[in-house]
Amino acid sequence: MTTYIAPTKDMQFVLHDLLKVTQSDIPGYSDLEADFTSAILEEAGKITSEVLAPLNAVGDIEGCRLENGVVYTPKGFKEAFDMVCEAGWPSLALDPEYGGQGMPGVIGTAVGEMLNASNQSFAMYQGLTNGAYASIHAHGTEAQKATYLPKMNNCEWTGTMNLTESHCGTDLGLMRSKAAPQDDGSYKITGQKIFISSGEHDMSENIIHLVLAKINGGPEGIKGVSLFIVPKFLINKDGSLGARNGVAVGSIEEKMGIHGNSTCVMNFDDATGYLLGDAHKGMRAMFTMMNHARLGVGLQGLAQADAAYQNAVIYAKDRLQGRAVTGVENPDGPADPLIVHPDIRRSLMDQKSFVEGARAFAYWSATLLDKSERSKDADALGLISLMTPVIKGFLTDEGYDMTVQAQQVYGGHGYIEEQGMSQFTRDARIAMIYEGANGVQALDLVGRKLASDGGKHVMAFFAMVKDFIKENESDEALKADFLEPLKSASKDLQTSAMFFMAEGMKNPNAALSGSSDFMHLFGHVCLGLMWARMAKAASAALAAGASDTEFYETKLATGRYYMARRLPATKLHLARIQSGADTVMALAAESF
Amino acid sequence: MTTYIAPTKDMQFVLHDLLKVTQSDIPGYSDLEADFTSAILEEAGKITSEVLAPLNAVGDIEGCRLENGVVYTPKGFKEAFDMVCEAGWPSLALDPEYGGQGMPGVIGTAVGEMLNASNQSFAMYQGLTNGAYASIHAHGTEAQKATYLPKMNNCEWTGTMNLTESHCGTDLGLMRSKAAPQDDGSYKITGQKIFISSGEHDMSENIIHLVLAKINGGPEGIKGVSLFIVPKFLINKDGSLGARNGVAVGSIEEKMGIHGNSTCVMNFDDATGYLLGDAHKGMRAMFTMMNHARLGVGLQGLAQADAAYQNAVIYAKDRLQGRAVTGVENPDGPADPLIVHPDIRRSLMDQKSFVEGARAFAYWSATLLDKSERSKDADALGLISLMTPVIKGFLTDEGYDMTVQAQQVYGGHGYIEEQGMSQFTRDARIAMIYEGANGVQALDLVGRKLASDGGKHVMAFFAMVKDFIKENESDEALKADFLEPLKSASKDLQTSAMFFMAEGMKNPNAALSGSSDFMHLFGHVCLGLMWARMAKAASAALAAGASDTEFYETKLATGRYYMARRLPATKLHLARIQSGADTVMALAAESF
How distant is the Cα of A562 from the closest Cα of chain B, in angstroms? Predict the structure, then answer.
């Protein structure tokens, strides 16, 4: 059985040493004193470690059960959900106007990491609710907001997003779900949606489905798609629950992982729906939700990697096998622990340096989102938009690889379900797929985000890296171990961006053939930047006489590993990008 | 539901265009005329596509069932096993003296690829039998060989290998299973073994367990380990089955994949065993089995990748989603097929170029093994010994990654068990672990094989690459697309080997910190060499006026992709290797 301990100390390091949140002028940040965030993180850490983590295997083994139209979540999920909601965790970063606690998103991100690390399937019930909340909050009428948000604020009502149909996922213009306008301004929604996470369950008294459908007679394709609010139970004028709406679960999907989350086929049969946002502008409203969701999914990649890593470390210290090549280290035992072996170290360092770098990246991104929303900062919005596909795609691809590595540390025991390491791998696998498969993220990055606003945001990113290097060049230790590798990697990123700009117009396939490589290259540079910044922060703490020297020295050593061993991947990605489309597109489809 | 079609055409290309088997002086090779091998491959292709592939999902869903000490394999497995054995497939490459057909191992390898691609769990029942057969064949007395081999020849009796105990896998010196000598020369074996593939089942009338145990009073540690033959049913003097032996299945492991294979906990309770080979020299006898097994596991990596790839191609051609960026390609449909998109192409080319390169590598390796065994060629034996960990480790790591990529092509549908793509990933995962986890393969490569016989074999490999390049330099097209990249990659391999030699003595951790990278670097150079050779063969066929120009041109284009996009990974591995042990070993164990 696996365990999870929230890494609150490292989270505090990121918030305070690295991001220095209290010094920020983003509204709400000045309240984030270290004692305050520590109290929140410790409390969230407690419930995730003690309540949610033990339910992780239960969810995997039991899964969800559909009986007579009712979905039963795994044993203990409902009680834990009530506990989490009563403690107010879902409303942490939501709008006080509707009952939320109004904390900055960066705190919600830290707590979200814990929820997803301890029990991803469980966290998704809340995660989808937050996404639906965000969409109604941004695009709903005052009446809609007043009706739904206070109840969704703390998951009294939960939410879902209904996009996919069996024949269309990415290409939503092909959808067949229909919306027939009614005299009272509502619509009758008919169609079938698949892969609906948390689509039906027994955890909340109502479920607010956000559903994409085409209004009869509207434009063809994606321009005729609208977004609707379709509650499971209709809501009476007084706010009480009314009749059951025409929406029902058809079946539960049998999946590779996240068994604890009910992934449903949802059938809409003349279900009453209410337009959310403008008619035929459904994609816009959906993207509000999706951008939040994509950052959340990136966080899942990091979270699963951390949970798997923690268990790999425990096993590597505990399992006795072989002797250190440099001499016996555990003379009283029959063998040395796995952790003495260099290849096990390499694997653990891969994992550790990814997890900590990704954490810094995710929280920094959350501050950008906070800045864009709370300070109405257009540059921050541009930057976070640019990086959203990187966060989603890179952190989930790498996060998955790390769960595979963590599983590998267990040897044969890693393949046995009882040990729990397989679950991390199987659960982490979905994050590369949902909310836009990672190939689509790469396409979004190269085909849309890179050149948006005339390339302004990527230029801002380059300038930021350059300025950081320049400002710190006089620090010789930082320069050799961190700034030089960062400079080199950043140059690879710029060279590839230039390649796309030069080729993009005359040969779009050349850019798109390198899109996944570019996404990874970008991700590595972001983590390289984070590690350089963390190294600076750690050095500063040591110079200032911090008592916990071991923590800061470990931070520096872990960063050096990333810069020396992981960051050079940028050169491979660049080489692939520069090889262009010729070899990628050489074959006729029939030749595969 | 997935399908599998044996790639007989490509197999014929490897055997005849590339390896030119009939021109070899290895005994038995001159019989391998194209018509003959074609007939065998077509026949094996038929049974694997029509009988075994449809049972693959059945095995995954049903798994094996233990009831009152009896293990029931999935529905249809027993009938299919009888069919495969009656057709003589297991005995294809076995010794005619004991009923085998005596064909070269390279043919057995091609058929083995099909078996493992169509149904890995099923193929393992035979695969383990072949391994046990090889060990008895090499180390058994004449009486033992006469008793067991004729029945194991065609899986009338099956075999297993019992190494692992719950507290020791790699470090077998820690084992606790005991062997008490009896007056009649036999032993009483007592102990518990775990993770025993095909340990108990209903497919054969007897199961011949090969079991590692320590003879009471023998040397401590690995030097006191002996190998024993422990039949499930004792064998009477007349060869008929006698009493049930003291060996019984304790439980079936619940695993991430290969559910169709019964992975058992085996309990030995005063079971009668017969020493195989010399006392206390069990590891030597076991390694005969293990080296065969490791090549077989490498083949599984390739096989699962091919099966997954084939289905990804079908889906990519069938699924309509989005439009080609260069203009509509399917004007009559609502969207273009996935295969028009560059990032899908990239993924399919990654898979295709790996599968075909790996196939050439595996079959070439089989010819080396044939040469070492049939021609008693010590150089061939040295080379195949050197490359065994590369075949096992690289082909299974990469093979797994390819199943993940194939699954990704399906988007959300790839995560749904019903589609079958998850099974390829889950089944392929074990190959990175069993028969020595890939980290152990890397250790074997760098710590043992690289310097064996004074580095003679790795030098021979370098010379072979160099000679090939030199011989073909006048071919300008080959030179630019294939020889130059190969030269550069081979240089990276040499540089890293030199690094290990220089550092190895004074800092063994420096070599071992780069062991996994070296294994991958080596694997890429091997595939690069194979692709250069295949390009030469394809060009020659085209120059000779071969009618199937599309096949050969596709081969060349696929090779160019590998050289341009995959082979440059050698530089990343080299950079990591050269960074040494400092960052890898920097932390105290407590700092993780």
Answer: 9
